[in-house]
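Appendix B, record 7
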Amino acid sequence: MRELTIWTEMASVGNREIDEQHKNLFRLGRETLRILEEHAHDVERAHEVLNDIAEALGQHFDFEEKLLARNACPLLERHVAEHNAYRMRLYKNLNQTAAVGIDKDGLLAVMRDWISKHVPNMDVLCKDYLK
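Structure tokens (predicted):
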């Protein structure tokens, strides 16, 4: 199975709630990939777990964006744009799964990018505005 990294303190933004959300999303990403491996031919189950991760990530993004806006983060627009790009990639993966089948590599790429690029770069960069 293809793997995703685990959450580490280096990804901490110093906000317990956001750090817990990140930890949960990292775990959910790994669990989703495991389920997709086990149910490779069950498109309905795959769509269900992809929908779960898209919903969890969307709720996290909404929470983070409200906090950044409330604290007048100067990078809010860029942060929201990155979130929207991840949303679009996940929705594309959801639509593709419903239409032609599971794209595990596509989901893996979205989650790896979010984990390895967005969290340590954008979120950590904005951590003073996530308190």
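Remarks on this record: The helical segments are 16-38, 43-70, 76-100, 104-125. Residues 15-129 form a domain with the Four Helix Bundle (Hemerythrin (Met), subunit A) fold (CATH 1.20.120.50).
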